[in-house]
Amino acid sequence: MSTADQANTTELPGTPTIPQVDQHAVKPNAPVVGKVHATYLCTASRKAAGFVRHIEIDVSGTELENAWHAGQSFGVIPPGTQSSGKPHKLRLYSIAAPTGGETGDGTIITTTVKRVVDEHWDTHKLLNGVCSNYLCDLNVGDEVLLTGPVGKRFLLPENPADHDYIFIATGTGIAPFRSMILDLIKLGMPSRIAMMMGAPYESDLLYDDTIRGWASEYDQFTYHTAVSRHLTPSQSKKLYVQDRLSEDFDQLGPMLASKRTLIYVCGIAGMELGVFQTLARLLPPDQLAQYLSLAPEIAGDIDNWERRMIPKKIKKTKRVFLEVY
Ligand SMILES: Cc1cc2nc3c(=O)[nH]c(=O)nc-3n(C[C@H](O)[C@H](O)[C@H](O)COP(=O)(O)OP(=O)(O)OC[C@H]3O[C@@H](n4cnc5c(N)ncnc54)[C@H](O)[C@@H]3O)c2cc1C
Question: Within 13 Å and on the Cβ side, how many CA atoms surround 85?
């Protein structure tokens, strides 16, 4: 995981104050036991290319109860040992439940898990990711060892109503945005939100019905999907999530120009480069400076930017939040 969370030292207009939140109520050496409360596929269709589950876990009576904020993650310790004989390492999962959990009393924590399925690099045998498959195999009532919460920067600001939000997700990167949007809904939806979601196929869009529901219920909420591997009735060319920024710039341009707007990016490691390049192509220098500060030698050569230039030469400001893994 690389959370490039270095921030610019100069305070820009619209710079948010990030609340101080507690972490590590439950440490890895003393995990608590949660019980699976619900588990279901949350892809738009059962025929999706990937298997992704919404998993709710009851943490009542543990130190995790009511102990997290939207945007944080929790740890899962899968049972069993590695080939070395050592216990499996903890994996982190973004919290998809709002602050206060699914039922508002802090007892039900949620995440969104994609089964990792790959081919072993030596034996070319099927390799199932240890923790993601363990979690997705669990049934209601099964116990799971949990730690956390973790994360002190990928959060909503102190005064959420002072800002508007462009949330950009690929895959399970949607999890923290479900969490944050549910928090904003609890506050009466005081902000404009553009939810941008990228997936390989339309069938792999996550929480699609729920998000469409929010878009029809709230005028200030818009949903922008980008499907990268096939054409859809509403999409005549294949699009990555950053291409959606350009395609919908009529709508998103005024938001990007506003001092209220914060950009959050979560999902597949590497996605941030395309998002930053697109912002650099779309925005005039004074607006771009609200989100990125660029080393002079690369500013004019956007097509040749590389991921390794982040964060030294392509530095995000405090109005951009990044969590990729
Ligand atoms: C802050 C944070 C938040 C996260 N949030 C989420 C989330 O909300 N949802 C989610 O699904 N994930 C999330 N993750 C990722 C998650 O932590 C795990 O990394 C992921 O589930 C894979 O773990 P695993 O145990 O299933 O796979 P592992 O068993 O750890 O395998 C991981 C990868 O290693 C590769 N690999 C290992 N050994 C070999 C080998 N011999 N040959 C070939 N390939 C090999 C495989 O390609 C596989 O893809 C998050 C990560 C971070 C850091």
Answer: 0
